[in-house]
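Q: Could you fold this chain for me?
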Amino acid sequence: MILPAYFRNGAPAGDLPPDAALGDGLLETMRLEQGRIPLWHLHRQRLVRSGAVPDSQLNDIEAFLPELAAVPDAARVRLRLAGGKGYWDLALHPLDPREGQARGVRLYLCETRLEAGETANRGCKLLQRARYNRAAAELPGSGLAVDGLLRDSAGRVIESIRCNLLLYTDEGWLTPDLSRCGVRGVMRDWLAERIALHEVDIEEGTLWRAGELALCNSVRGVLPVVALDGRQLGPPGPETRKLQQLVTEELW
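A: Sure. Below is the predicted structure, expressed as C-alpha cells.
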C-alpha cells in the first residue's frame, strides 16, 4: 500500500472531505506500527466512552483494520466518525518514528483557554478543533518541535494542543486532572497502567518547580519538553528516558 491512502467506510477513496463538512463527530489519531495499531483497544474504549458510536460501527472498523497490514512502515492514522451518520473514514500518512524523540519540544503557554465543564468530562477527541487551532495560531513556529500549553478558565494547566502533559516531581509523575475538560489520551491511559501516575490539579507555578516535563500521545509516544515559554530546561532527563524506553520495549 502506497501512502498517503484514504478509505471511506472501508472502501478506497481518492480523497476525503474536510473536518468541517462532517459536522459533529469524533477523531482518533493513531499510530500504525508493523501493520497493526498497538493501542487500538484503548482507542476503542474511548470511542465507547463517548456514547456516540454504536457497536456495529466499531465492529466494522475493527474488521477493516487487518487490511492495514499491507503498510510495511510506521504510519499516522486519522480515524473520523461523523456523529449519527454511520460514516467513518481513515487517512494514512507516512511517519518518521524517530522524529521529536531526542530533540524534544519547545512548549509555550497559550492565552486561549479551555472551558471547564460542570459535568463529568468523557475526555474524547472531537472533530471541532477551532479552539486548538486558535491556540496554534499563537505559537512562534510550527512543526513537531513546537507545541502550545492550554489552561482552563480557572488557570489550571490541562494539556498541550496535541498531547497530554507529564511532570516529574518529588512526588513522582504527575498529570493534570481532566475531570472538567481536556482530552484523555490513550498513551496517557497506557502509561497509567504501568507507572504510578498521579492525576492532580496543576497550576502554572508547578511547571517551573518540576524536575522534568514531558508530553505524550499515541502517535509519538513520550516527548521531552526542553524549553518552556522561551526558557531552556536542559536536555531530556533520565525519568523521561525511562518512559521512552518503556514505550519502545512494549509497543514499538
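A (continued): The longest helix spans residues 238-250.
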